[in-house]
Amino acid sequence: MENKPNTPDNNSQQATFIQLPYEYVNGASNEDEINLAELWLTLIKKKWLLIGLPLCFVLLVLIYYSYKPKVYEAKMIFLPPTQAMVVPFNTGELAKISPAKIYERFSVGLLSRKNQSDFFDQFNLFEKTKVSDLNNQNKKKPDKKNVYNRFHDSISIGLFTAEEPKPLLKADKVKRRFKDNKKEKIQQITLSIKGKDPQFNSDLINGFGAYVERKIVLEQINDLTVKKDLAISILTQKIEQLRTKSNKKRLDKIKQLEEQNKIAENKIQDSIDTLRVKAKTSRLAEIKRLEEKDHLDRKIIKKQIKELKVIAKIKRLDSIEKLKEALKIANNLGIKDPSYLSLDYYKPQMKNGYQNSSGMEQASNLTSQSAALTEISKQPNALYLKGERTLSEEIKKLQNRLSDDPFISQLRSMQAKLRALQTNEKISALKNRISDDPYISELPGLAQKLSLLKRDRQLEAYKSRKNEDPFIKELIGLELELIKLNRLSYNPDNVGSAIVSQYAFPSKKTINKISKLKVVLISSVLGFFVAIFIALLSGVVSNKRQAE
Hints:
Helix content is 68%, strand content 6%. It is an alpha+beta fold.
C-alpha cells in the first residue's frame, strides 16, 4: 500500500489512518489473534473449573434452599356490619352510627399500634411466640421490643372497594389508602400475617381480629355511655337547680318565721333566766349560811374535844405523880405486894393456901386478894398499900399510854357530832341540786308559753318538708327524660363492628415465590461466569510471569 498525499478534501479520520505505519497496524492485528487463541487455550485448560464451580454453586444454593425456613401465611377476611348490628347504637337519640362509620373505625383499630401492643401484652405473645419465627436467627436471648416489632411488621392489611380491589398493604401504608378512598366505601378488609408455624399464625390472626372487633364495640359503647352520662349530668343539674331554688324559698320563709318567734322567745327566756338567777342566788345564800353555822359548831366542838384531851392528860400526869409518891411510901414501908387492913394476917394463909390448898381454894384466895386491891384503890391516901410491884406496873402503863381518848367519857359523843356536821345532808342536797326550776312557782306558766312558740305549726310544716318535688311544676318532664336515659343500656353481644367472612386456617402451602428450577438455573449461570472470570484472570497472571 502506497502513502497518499494529504489533501484538504480528505477527512480527518482518513488522514489519521494514512499516517499510521503499516508495520504497526499489521503487527497489532497479529497480536490480537494470538491473544484470543491463548484465551481459548486457557479456557480449555480450565475446563474442570468451568464445570465444577457452577456445580458447586448449584449444590450450595440447593443446600441453602433446603434448610431455608418455610414461611406460611394466614389470612382473615372481614365485611361491613349489617344495619341490624348497629341499631342498638342508635337508641336514645344520642348519636347516629352507620355501618360504614363503625366499619371504618374498625379498620383504623386494626392499624392502631396501641391495639397491637395491648394484644401483644394481654395475650403474653412474648412468651408464646417462637424465637425462630419472630426473633433473629442467631438464637440469642429474645428481646421483647424486637419480637413486638417483628409481630407488627408481619401483619398486613388489605382494603377492597366496590369499584376496584386493592392489593395487600403493610399496616404503616394503609392510612394513606384511607385518605385516597375517603369517598369510597370499603367493602372488604383482609388481615394477614406471615410466619413459620401455620397453626400459630392462624390462631394469632384470628385472636387479633376478634380482639380488635370486640374492642371497637366496647369503645363505641363507652363513647355512647359517656354521652349518656353527660346528658344525665345536664338533666340532673337542671333538676338540682330547680330543687335548690324551691328549697331556698322554703328556707327564707322558715327564717322569717324563726326570727318572729325568736323575738317572743327571747322575752320569755329573759324572764325565766331572771327567775332562775334569783332562785340560784337564794340557794347559794342558804348554802353559805348553813356552811358558816356548821363551821362555827365544828369549831366549838373541836375546842371542847381539845380541852377534854388536855384535862385527861393532866389527870393522867397527876395519877402518875400520886402513884410515884405512893411507890416511895410503899418502898419506905417495905410493902412489896398489895396490903389492906389485916392483909399481913392473911399472907401466911394465902401463902400456905397457894402451896397446900386445892385448885378451888387457890381461886378463892385470888378473889379475896383482888377485892382487897379494889378496896385499896378506893382509898386515896392508901395507894401505897398496893405494893411496889403493882404501883410500878401502873406507873409504867400510864407513862407508856399513847392516847387518852378511850378514857374520856364525853369524847365519842362529841366526835359523832363533829362527823355529823362535816356531812350535812341539807347542804349536800342544796349543792347537788341540778335545777332550781321545780322550786320556782312562776316558771310553769312561762315554760308553757315558750313551748307553744317552739311548736309553731306553720314553721314545723316548712321544716318537716323533706321533698320539694311536688311543689315544682317543671320537674315532671325533666324526670321522665332522665328515666329514659337511665334505662338506656348497650349489650356488647347484640352489636358488632364487622362481620368475619372467613377465619384464618393453617395453610399447607408456603409463600416462597422462587421455584427450585429457577434457583438452579440462576446459580449455574452465575457459577459459570465466575469460573470464566477466574480462568481468564489466572491465564493473564501466568503469561506475565512467562514474559518476565
